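Module 6 notes. Inverse folding takes a fixed backbone as the condition and produces residue identities as the prediction. Think of it as a translation problem where the source language is geometry and the target language is the twenty amino acids. Below is one complete input and output pair. Work through it position by position during the lab.
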């Protein structure tokens, strides 16, 4: 991802927030057979306060990626959406796409069976907790061996990144009036309305304006 100082995101807490809210990630590896990509849910490691993440891949994706043998890039995509030049008024402008993304790169550590079971349990609990009657991993009905068989089909990993590229491209290069118009349009009911992106822009620009004050 090409970095631009105007759009760079360096705040670890903000990166953690993006990762926590957008756990569906893309895993990318450069292998001897070319670039490969997979898609899995990945969570922050709640035992650490940095950008370490944990997750799993289904077999044989661990073999395809050479998991644990080479660098893996995990891409988290935050709110994003189209910005039409009409929102800038009668000025020369081009269409663009606003977005937030975090790329974490490093060589993942492979987890033991016991560690993988803990991560799988956390994944299930994380997503099932939104349900009024959650189905937790150890509550599979009428099949005591289900969890064991499920774990054998996966490979758990922990990744502490050695390279981090995070970008928040949210019209920081536009005047306040244009930013306010974009946020209003994204918050509206038009074809390109996008309330999550509007909220992300407001959060970023409120911080920018506060720092300027």
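Target side of the pair, the amino acids:
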């Amino acid at each position: 991802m090409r970095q631009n100082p105007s759009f760079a995101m360096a705040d670890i807490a903000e990166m953690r927030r993006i990762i926590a809210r957008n756990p569906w990630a893309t895993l990318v590896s450069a292998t001897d057979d070319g670039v490969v990509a997979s898609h899995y849910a990945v969570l922050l490691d709640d035992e650490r306060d940095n950008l370490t993440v944990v997750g799993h891949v289904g077999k044989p994706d661990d073999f395809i990626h050479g998991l644990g043998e080479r660098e893996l890039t995990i891409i988290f995509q935050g709110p994003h959406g189209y910005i039409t030049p009409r929102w800038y008024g009668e000025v020369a402008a081009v269409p663009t796409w606003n977005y937030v993304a975090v790329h974490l790169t490093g060589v993942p550590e492979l987890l033991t069976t016991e560690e993988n079971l803990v991560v799988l349990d956390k994944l299930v609990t994380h997503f099932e907790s939104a349900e009024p009657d959650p189905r937790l991993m150890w509550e599979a009905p009428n099949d005591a061996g289900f969890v064991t068989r499920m774990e054998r089909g996966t490979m758990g990993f922990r990744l502490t990144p050695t390279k981090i590229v995070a970008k928040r491209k949210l019209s920081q290069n536009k005047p306040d009036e244009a930013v306010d118009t974009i946020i209003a349009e994204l918050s509206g009911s038009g074809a390109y309305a996008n309330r999550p992106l509007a909220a992300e822009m407001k959060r970023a620009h409120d911080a920018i304006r506060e720092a300027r004050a």
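Reference fact for the lab report: The chain has one domain: 12-170.
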